[in-house]
Amino acid sequence: MEELQKKHRQEQKDLQARITQKKKSATKKTRKGVNDESTELERQLKEKQDLEISKITGHIGDNNSDIVIEPPAEVVHENGVETDMQNLSVTSVQPKDERTKKPNRQKARLARRAAEQESMATQAAKEVEDSPDLRQQESDAMRAQYTRRGLKEHDIRSDGHCLYAAVADQLSILRLPLRPQNPSDDMPPVTDSSIIPYKTTRVVAASYIRNHSQDFEPFLEQPLEDYLVKIQHTGEWGGHLELLALAKAYNVDINILESNGHVEKIDSGSENEPKPALWLAYYHKKYGLGEHYNSLRPVG
Questions:
Q1: pTM above the 0.70 mark?
Q2: What is the C-alpha to C-alpha distance for residues 153 and 100, in angstroms, rounded to an integer?
Q3: What is residue 256's three-state secondary structure?
Q4: Which of 32, 94, 156, 248 has its CA 20 to 30 A from that of 146?
Q5: What is the pLDDT of residues 57-115, one digit of tens each?
Q6: Residue 77 in contact with residue 26, Cβ under 8 Å?
Q7: CA–CA separation, 222 vs 249, rounded Å?
Q8: Which is more confident, 174 or 93?
Q9: Euclidean distance between CA atoms 23 and 19, whole angstroms
Q10: Which of residues 268 and 217 earns the better pLDDT score?
């Protein structure tokens, strides 16, 4: 019996090899016929082996052998490529999610830039918080200078007219007329008392510079007439050149006091009798618009 089982196993192995070879050689058109033929060959072999076993055991169809014919791996021929279906590992390929988009580089850059700006703003705020209050320091230093010199401050509106308004206030304290004693020919008369004082001092400064252009024009960075229009008809800030023109036009000395105690003296240039002196306070940091002039009056 053992020899017969061994013989049957060899027959089954040989048949499996034959069927595998047939399926490898099959095409799409012949595949069904090959499968049917393979099934028939397996059936015939099984009947033959059952008959042989029954002759020994005396029971037909009672094949108790542990021989199992393993079906050959299905081989598919397609486009000349052999595929072993039994050993083929099928991996489920998920379709791409059409909604998945590539990262937006521009948005990423903007986000990084916003984060950097926020960080810089935070750092700047911390530096301001930790830094000394420069405005308060300048204000305190100015008050100390006023006390030393017996002066008190008269606030002038913080705008582009502050220099001209401060000079006009000083002239009123010294009882000097807004119209100079020797006005130039092109200066219009000041007859209306309702005219804002700083407008008059603007006209005086522009008139003096026009009539003494040789002294001022080398220091200008624009045509003379354009510069004079800004002085006389706009809110353009005034500076050293305008103070010099006003000092000469009114024949006064102008003292400009700073928080560190420095006094810049602008002389009228006249060597005649003693001249009145105007006092202005010059701030660098206290006012939001930047540089600013206030008028300084005597105490009492």
A1: no
A2: 70
A3: strand
A4: 248
A5: 765 544 444 444 455 545 444 444 444 444 444 444 455 555 566 678 888 888 888 99
A6: yes
A7: 23
A8: 174
A9: 6
A10: 217
Provide the token pair at 156. Answer: 């002038």
Of 116-125, 215-224, 274-283, the poorest mean pLDDT is in 116-125
What residues does 75 pair with on adjacent strands?
Answer: 84
Q: Report the C-alpha gap between 35 and 50 in whole angstroms.
A: 23
Distance separating alpha carbons of residues 252 and 254, to the nearest angstrom? 6
Separation of alpha carbons 81 and 92, rounded Å: 21
**Cα(234)–Cα(160) distance, integer angstroms:** 9
Q: In sequence order, what are the residues at sequence separation of 6 or more whose Cβ sits closer than 8 angstroms to the Cβ of residue 161? A: 198, 202, 235
Buried-exposed string 13-26: b where 16+ CB fall within 10 A, e elsewhere: eebbeebbebbeeb
Residue 175 has a CB neighbour count (10 Å cut-off) of 7
Which pLDDT value is given to residue 149? 95
Cβ burial, residue 164 (10 Å; 0-12/13-18/19+): buried
How far is CA 295 from its chain centroid? Answer: 44
**Residue ranges with strand state E in the chain:** 75-78, 81-84, 151-154, 253-257, 263-266, 277-287, 290-298
- State which H helix or E strand residue 52 sits in: helix 31-57
Here the tokens at position 83 are 């595929």
